[in-house]
Design brief:
alpha/beta; 4-stranded antiparallel beta sheet
Length: 283
Amino acid sequence: MTGRHTDHELPAPATKAGQEGLDALLTHPGQALIGLDLDGTLAPIVADPEKARAHPEAVPALAALAPKVAAVAVITGRPAEVAVRNGGFADVPGLEHLVVLGHYGAERWDARTGEISAPPPHPGVAAVRTELPELLERLGASQGTWIEEKGRALAVHTRRATDPQATLDQLREPLTGLAGRHGLIVEPGRMVLELRPPGMDKGVALTEFAREIGAGSVLYGGDDLGDLPAYSAVDRLRTDGTPGLLLCSGSDEVTELRERADLVVDGPEGVVRLLSALAARLP
């Protein structure tokens, strides 16, 4: 069962663990980590990912909330530079404690310095970049699909196809094979299959950052399958004694998050309302 938020009041989570996480955040905000996905959570989903931008009220809400908590981390599969640009996070008063963990944590942008740190790219990405267009052509899937260049990963979107789900299902096995031959994995999402290096996911990124700052509580909000590892990370933190709140930016396309969340809000607009309500509630 999941809680639902449709107004401007601070909502009550539908689970005991979620309520404990919210209570800890409100009681000791200076120890709280706010972790958020970007696309579908802070930014509405659009047909062309290059045109995705944060909800107009997202940055003001974050700027009001961030100074009152330990840190805010945007954890995304996008390159950190793209996430910063699309989110509008750079040079915003109040967001000095914001970090963007791009490529599922492989890249890190720090608002305080404006710098990005990252390891060398995985060689398999270059090989897949060369072979992917020919594979899509051979499968008869070049029309209606779109390859998103993500630097350290590649994503094949099917939302523009005549039958997006059928095209996604058709591509899942061959893309998994292509990725595996070059030491990569396939990360499924909302009408997208992303080919990326293994070893990092949003759960690893969230856990490492929470430990780095010594978080006393964690709120994580997401909307897609790639956010499930972060949900599992919050569950493990709870088991270890760190209260947590699982937030779902509601979508009918992904039910797993809705079923596991402590609190469901109505997409990015609902996320923004919740962030604003938290900022108003905290001293």
